[in-house]
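chain below, 291 aa
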Amino acid sequence: MIEPHASPYRVDDPESFRVAEWPTAPPTGAPDDPKDRLEDLVEELDDLQRLLYADNRYSLLLVFQAMDAAGKDSTIRAVLSGANPAGFQVHSFKQPSSEEIDHDFLWRSARRLPERGRIGVFNRSYYEDVLVVRVHPDYLDGQALPPSVERDTIWEDRYRSIRDHERHLAENGTVVLKFWLNVSRDEQCRRFISRIDDDSKNWKFSAGDLRERALWDDYMDAYEHAIRATSRPWAPWYAIPADSKPQMRLAVAEIVVGTLESLGLEYPKVDADQQSRLGSFREQLSAELET
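prediction:
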């Protein structure tokens, strides 16, 4: 299995991971204006995406989880702004439909996994069922779970299912990168105020945002448990400081590009017979231009 890109933000020792100890601000010495570097990485990603498609042995799955206003949408746009839309798909997972409830909690995302040669982006994911649902355990009542599901052990059982699922993906060529965009409570507050003050962003804010914000500590506890239980070498979590959006986008881009570079991707090579025939094909095409 491929081990994704090393990074100071990769959670390599999940047993010792603590949300309260993880930074939300970029490190000291980070460039003041990472725009130029991000533009270079976006160009590199464009080249690597085409190579990934041509190589056709791997797929790449990018999972984004965060509190509201952390910057998931803008990060996905910024990092993948130069990518060919034919080579990647973005899927957002919100409240499950009745059809989705009639399946296990991994089903709806498994249907959206990227094919070989492509990049898949999950804006929220199957982790919602151990994050939002853990904070709101009454949601389990609407999931039509059979009596055999033990409520006392359901979170550990779901963590195990997620670990097994992600290991299966990794063993079969899907490289899984998971990003928790770690925004501080104060910065979220400032961004909510900005949404209220900006007429063009009013639609992004609702009273429900404040209700969920009041459960901040519960969410941090849920994130800590989920990351500790599911950050593994074949599908690591990256806890990215999110108080600075430009720095956050740069960190994500570096990890994505670094991981693709490590795959040893190659354009397909033609055999000697095909190579020898290319010359005659070229002559035939050139002759058409001369007539």
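The first strand starts at residue 59 and ends at 66. The chain is about 45% helix and 10% strand.
thats it, cya
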